[in-house]
Amino acid sequence: MKEHFPALIVVTPLIMALLVSAMSWLNKKLCFPTTVLALLVSLLSSIGLLLRVMSEGTVRYRLGGWSPPWGIAYEADHLNGLILVVVSLAAFLNLIGSKALVAKEFDQKEGPFYTLYLLFVTGLLGILVTGDAFNLYVLLEIASLSGYALIGMGNGRASLAGLNYVFMGTIGASFYLLGIGYLYLATGSLNMADISAILPGILPSNVVFLAFLLCLSGMLIKMAFFPLHGWLPNAYTHAFSTASSLVAPLTTKVMIYVMIRISFFVFPPAFVLTGVDISGALVWFAVVAMVMGSVLALSQKRLKRMLAYIIVAEVGYMVGGFWLGNRLGMNGAILHIANDVMMTLCVFLAAGAISYKINDDRFSALQGIFRKMPFTMAFFMIGALSIIGVPPTCGFFSKWYLISGGIAAGQYGFVAALLFSSLVNAVLFFRIVEIGYYEPFPEGHHAHHARSGPKGGMAEAPLGMLVSLGITAGLLIVMGIYSGDIVNNIIQFAVPL
Amino acid sequence: MMETVVSIKPLLAILTSLLVIPVILSSRTPNIRETWTFTAAIIKFLLVASMIPIVLAGGSIEYTIALVLPAVAIKLRVDSLGLLFAMVASFLWIITSAYSIGYMRKLREHSQTRYYCFFALSLSATIGVAFSANLLTMYLFYEMLSLATYPLVTHHQDREARSSGRKYLTYILGTSIGLVLPAMLIVFQSSGTLEFSPGGIIPDTMSPVMVTVLFFFLVFGFAKAGVMPFHAWLPAAMVAPTPVSALLHAVAVVKVGVFCVLRVVTAIFGVHRMDAFHLDTILCATAAVTIVASSLIALSQDGLKRRLAFSTIGQLSYILLGGALLSKSGMTGGFLHIAMHAFGKITLFFCAGAIFVSTGIKNISQMAGIGRRMPITMAAFFIGALSVIGLPPCGGFISKWYLLLGTIEAHRIGMLVVLLGSSLLNAAYFLPVVYRAFFCTENEALFEKKIVEAPVWCLAPLMLTAICSVILFFYPQPFLRLARIGVQAIMGGY
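The joint structure predicted for all components is written out below.
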């Protein structure tokens, strides 16, 4: 059992997806528990795998017993071990939290929804755990296709947004595939470890150089790196909340993971950081991404759309941190992947709870929301504080590493952009507070003395939603307090630098 | 020599008010809710007080919560200065809780449960700042306090509260993220630590320009200290219910600001470096300007709470000035002033609130003859005013005495003049209030001779703090001894 954790993580949700699909014809009530079970197995296997990695080092698994480079190998190390746990945890929490909302939004289509949900998670977890560059592409397509469908199931302009997402996503994936093709041409192998052993011998090579650029471009599109972010805001805004709170926290972060993986475990790090000579430019692009993401977020009038633009800025944090090229920036980027998954999940879950209650996420509809949903908003605020970067929430600590990395690398533009983005985030979230907490204004002088008037009364989201939201918010603080341990025991060993 | 005890007590002192929040939230009746607030306040005070013997013996208490960054932990250390501040804040929380009952119930304020919750949270953060062992921990609790006080400041949830709240957050969050955070990172990058140490931690290799820039970032970054030009949030915050203004904007929040600045001055830069880079002169000048300007502005304020707020801004800079003098007496006076000003000013705020509760009046111009109606309140106001002006027989005299001695020790006669001049200004803006309340002619009196005091829950606390102010003149020892021990440790061989 213990040896099969890497396979269980991926295979369980894949098989269960088929099962759920079949069940939706027989008994709809079984769909949800089966999905829960599948993700629970994935989650527990991920945790087990991480513990094994922490005690034994890199875990290698041969799928079907075929040995690499011909067979597909799964490899778990400190880098994907951590992210696997975070991603499967986020998928699990979101599932628990959105049961009521799914029933409401998808009505008769619960079965297909849960099937797609599982397939999407299968794809992402597979991308994380695989050690094969081509297998990664296959899983990328699994995740993307189910992602398109999840987005497109929404109302109104969702299908158009989904279509846009399909176009951009396909272009991104094609770039990646092309890159892998060139790599295969140069090395004759698709196994990551194998390629990385062969590559140093054939460098410098224009083919390898081109392969790297293609892979990188593909990932930059898929992670919505400004100015390639065009597909993201519409996709996350128009999708149903249940879908966006799954896709939004996970997709971009997993793509950033892929960028790190191919940069350090497929191509030689020395070649990537100095040979290609692209890191300086990418840091500056990241600065632009952070600033523009924040500024665009400021100009939004809908909650989910604002959150979507915050993600665009956050992608800049991680890409910039990674390409700083030093230990601190790297730690910051990887820690921020984990943290950002949880904090984005937190705010998107809260947005889902709000849309469950008031069917609207325009700012003007949020008047009096603090009185109506005090607990949801309290958890939302914890997520917001983490995004702003207030200790002891985890967002502060990854930002600390990122800024330290920026100072150490002498990239003061990056440091300034991070601080700017933090301040803008504060404005963004306290604007919500101002609307939700003060408006509508009481009439007359000292009207506040008897304020429990007609608008009063609590109308909280269902318990399941609150529980998973509460756990997510609590985790933001726990991960903050333990961030020292996470860095010292896991992230420290994640990249060879 | 100094002994260090490892104990969980400081953490417990912080957590008491945090842990009581769920209980407050789930309390069924207001009386039960307030009982829990009192219980927490008293336990907290006793926990803080129980640490006195060790600290008076020259020891300190440490507790590490978690190692969050390499070489930086969330860590608590109780030393005499932190304990002095924690004693003041936790003791006055008990009294303010009583006052809150009188005030909030008489005015039938809404959302009282929320009010008590965030009050408790604020106190946790305050004690956290007092007991911080390094800059990161201090920053953590500082931010926690900024956010916990926001719902209190904006309690009324009307347009005025919103614009004040916006100002409050812009000043306080803006400076802490924009100035303190980068400064903290630079300190960490250059010295590899954030731990407070008596000699400071800035490496000697740092260029004077950089040191000066850092100094500006850290002094102005802690905007809760109300140093001009980052003071405008404080008068705006007066929109809060009076108990909030009393405890938070005369004691906890603002003193957290000056405490942070003093910690940075003494334990990040260190007394020697302050002198070597002439940072003391910069701080003296800033404080002097703030003292004089705020006192002058206070003269022209008609709103009683606004006048008190500007007075507070000036008094906070007294404390900073005490630190900037870099002399033993001056520093002692500065730290002592944290306690002395707290008791005086909280009395004044309590009185302002009592007047509002009983008559609905906020402006000084309408208070002619109010002493006839509320003699006890105005007597307490008089005592509080004497203490803040720095006249015997009130505690404020003692701290001002040390401050004046400090200016002479430091050979800064200019500062002596500033202190004396501002005392006159203090008298000029406080005593007329008292005079008009008691001695206006009969036809000017707006009030009947009937005595209508505020509810006893308001009255008893303000009498108590007034009496404390007087007692502190005769027995300043507990605070004085703590201040002296602390200053001895900071100044060492300087």
